[in-house]
Amino acid sequence: MMTSRRHYIFPTLLLSTILLSPTHAADFCVADLTTQTTSGYTCKNPTNVTADDFVFTALVHSGNTSNTNKASAVPGFVQQFPGLNGLGLAVARADIEPGGAIPLHSHPAATEMIYVAEGSITAGFISGASNVVYVRKLNKGEVMVFPRGLFHFQVNTGKEHAVGIASFSDEEPGVQLVSLAIFGNDFPSFFVEKTTNIDEAEVKKLKVLLGGSG
């Protein structure tokens, strides 16, 4: 009896020790957005963490599509959703009017998967290895994945407002729009012409349109 009793008490004490140990509180690290290091955000003081840190409500409402692209993207990355810190995922909402588009872009740090919640979206990506373009029209309820770092796009080729909910494999996916990377900065027009074979007059025209200079 003595042996069995000790056998019963030991795992109970061990479980209590695990549950009460300081490391048990380290199962999450809500981002302290005021303090960032080269390895990411530091953890918010656990005593200041609330349930709200793990809830993101910005995807409830559609974004502003009154722009040239007739589209909007509302990100839920760690900067907007601190509870994602260290968890390796993020979210976003895309609203696209008929004829609108989320321009060609990439996420250097993450794979993206998009779910069509409303309407239909024609989406695609370009293979980095073969330069092949993979395009597919997605109807409501369908999902498409865009491998990490590859250029991809979404276009509303339908006749009604479309909504896509995207998820990412990193809390800081990063985003780089191709058009802005080339024409929306001070990249000298001479070098843009030489490296893209686009006529310099057209380069300057696009720079004006996208807010670039040089």
From TrEMBL:
Alphabetical keyword list: Apoplast, Disulfide bond, Glycoprotein, Manganese, Metal-binding, Receptor, Secreted, Signal
Gene3D superfamilies listed in its UniProt record: Jelly Rolls (2.60.120.10)
Major location (coarse): secreted
GO molecular function, a single term: manganese ion binding
Binding site for oxalate: 107, 112
Signal peptide limits: 1-25
GO CC annotation terms, alphabetical: apoplast
Domain of life: Eukaryota
PROSITE patterns named in the record: GERMIN (PS00725)
Disulfide bonds: 29-43
Compartments in which it is found: Secreted, Extracellular space, Apoplast
Pfam families: Cupin_1
Residues binding Mn(2+), per UniProt: 105, 107, 112, 152
Domain Cupin type-1: 57-204
InterPro entries noted in UniProt: Cupin_1, Germin, Germin_Mn-BS, RmlC-like_jellyroll, RmlC_Cupin_sf
PANTHER family: GERMIN-LIKE PROTEIN SUBFAMILY 3 MEMBER 3 (PTHR31238)
Family: Belongs to the germin family.
Protein name, per record: Germin-like protein
Source organism: Linum trigynum
